[in-house]
Amino acid sequence: EDPQKTYIVYMGSHPKGKVSTSSHHIRFLTETIGSNFAPRSLIHSYKRSFNGFVAKLTEAEAKKVSEMEGVISVFPNGKKQLH
Amino acid sequence: TTRSWDFMGFSEQVKRVPAVESNIIVGVFDSGIWPESPSFDDAGYGPPPAKWRGRCEVSANFSCNDKIIGARSYRSNGKHLENDIKGPIDSDGHGTHTASTVAGGLVRQASMLGLGLGTARGGVPSARIAAYKVCWSDGCTDADILAAFDDAIADGVDIISGSLGGSSVKDYFNDSIAIGSFHAMQKGILTTLAVGNNGPEFTTIVNFSPWSLSVAASTTDRKFETKVKLGDGREFNGVSVNTFDLNGTQIPLVYAGDIPKAPFDRSVSRMCFENTVDKERVKGKIVVCDSLAVPGGVVAVEGAAGIIMQDESPQDDTNSYPLPASHVGPKPGALILSYINSTRVPTASIMKSRGRKRNRAPFVASFSSRGPNPITPNILKPDISGPGVEILAAWPSTVSPSGAEEDNKRVLYNVISGTSMACPHVTAAAAYVKSFHPTWSPAALKSALITTAFPMSHKRNPDGELAYGAGHINPLGAVHPGLIYNASETDYVKFLCGQGYSTESLRRLSDDNASCSANNSGTVFELNYPSFALSTNASNPISQVFRRRVTNVGSSYATSYKAVIVNPWRDLKITVKPSVLLFKRLGEELSFEVRIGGQIRKGVESAALVWDDGKHKVRSPITVFNAN
């Protein structure tokens, strides 16, 4: 009824001296969404230069994530083109 | 590039700092790269710079060398389409073209089957390339673009070139490219971006964040002309990139409007839309269509010996086609149709294109997206323009030059147009400046390019700065800008405070404990941007103050700069306070204010502030435009 789509969850810079890992992001999603969250829904974690991840979420889950502390923006994984 | 660099006075002999230039790594976000191109021959290059921390995704059909030092591909959904090749190899051609424009080596006698013959070269031929393949036959996803930024920043690239963008307006932190380029800026990496090909309408620009450099496309003084010769001896000039040579052979000529395929009538078939023309009756003939087709769109006239497209669309958006083709304007088009109607057996020939001198160059391409900036109209975008029309650069010999499936041609150099082609010229110019000033910030590099740009003609480009920004890049001039408008991460955060971003968001973004207090909330007019833009209502009187700072990077002796306002329209009253800046040492930063008053009488009014010390002319464009 509320199909999953791919979203970017952008969380800004890494907190000083800390690097976020996939397990941090899985923990964050599990805490936010609840035990229904399947770890395989996390598609990619950005961990080298900034903090964020790509995940398959329902619209309701995306809204919930966007309201969490530490999240700057949540937006659908859109497409761009060569110019 | 066999003409573009020379056109801007950037000859092969320009002064370089080879040891520094060869340490510069350019990250190219595109469709991958084709390492076998002669432009990427690594003979004479040393090992990758010690700072390089990137990788090469090696496979049976791909490896890096000392020129292409890194290459990765990103496909977060894991699904590859039939037309794509896994890994960083370029199965489109676009990425090979852009990468070679930035940093390809010198290749003599390069041409597209004789067209555009000359030396193909990148703007920084000694620099190294790191290719990040984020675009595939179905586009480039935000997830993959962000993954490439995540890697490129950590890999140690010095500058990023992105000839890609979205199709809708997104706020800065809902846009993958704005986010990635912000983090690049934090690490001292400038991102140059193409503004898009949705011109000439206003507010069509994509990629307009203040921390990136947004590039419009303009012409050089070379154009390709494709003559059409009728059976009665008359010749008409058309445009296209036509490498077919019919040797003047006269071929039967037919008008698509005269050969509709049921159930369509002539009013439809004349446009040569797919399945509307009787293909049997075009076989072996040159067909005249009343519209400009895209290269893949000529399937409608499959089997034809050639195509003449006639309409009123701009003549700066040329393509190559899988068959002899020329695009003519409506006047010659009408004469050709009248010839067909009045002749029993009409014939024509399409000549191979010839490079000709284009007078009145440069002008901004009709297709180049225009400002104003849709999110922050009071920051001028585009920033600058560069050559993006009919650029010859490297191409994979595995991909057809027109992109059409039925095109069996194979070339090592291809002529294509787009803001994508302009962007790598500007990336290279920025890298060239960086080779002389390795410690300059992204904002300083931007400032150097913007304030030294060749002014462009407002007469020839009625959209003014909203089309070309500060003007045409001047790589040589940008090495010695005299003064720079610098900006740090803190300045951008302050600007974002003023744009309504919360303290909490900005602390996450910059991790510098920023807080959006009254002291730390800058209006857009206080961001130390090297250009001045004001969106206003034509019926309202204007009164706006801009605050700026300039840093002396020119002379170590005491130097006095005088403010000169170039204001050809006289409808604006522009004053600068103080009107003289006296610098006592290098690196000194002084502040000033620009006040704009008056009222605009037309859509876009242009002026410029020039700080002049007798040696440097530090020119900032000023544009005031009607918000409506």
Verbal overview:
The complex is a heterodimer of chains A (83) and B (628). Chain A has 83 residues and is α+β, with helices and mostly antiparallel strands. Chain A contains 2 helices and 5 strands. Chain A is globular and about 40 Å long. Chain B is of the alpha/beta class. In chain B, the strands form 7 sheets. In chain B, strands 12, 13, 14, 15, 16, 17, 18 and 19 form an 8-stranded mixed beta sheet that branches. In chain B, strands 2-5-1-8-10-11-20 form a 7-stranded parallel beta sheet, sandwiched between helices. In chain B, strands 24-31-30-26-28 form a 5-stranded mixed beta sheet, with no helix packed on it. In chain B, strand 3 and strand 4 (115-120) form a beta hairpin. The longest helix of chain B is centred in the last third of the chain and has 18 residues, at 419-436. The model of chain B has no long low-confidence stretch (mean pLDDT 95). Classes of the chains: A alpha+beta (83), B alpha/beta (628). Chains A and B meet through strand 1, strand 2 and strand 5 of A and strand 7, helix 4, strand 9, helix 5 and helix 8 of B.
Summarize the structure.
The complex is a heterodimer of chains A (83) and B (628). With 83 residues, chain A is α+β, with helices and mostly antiparallel strands.
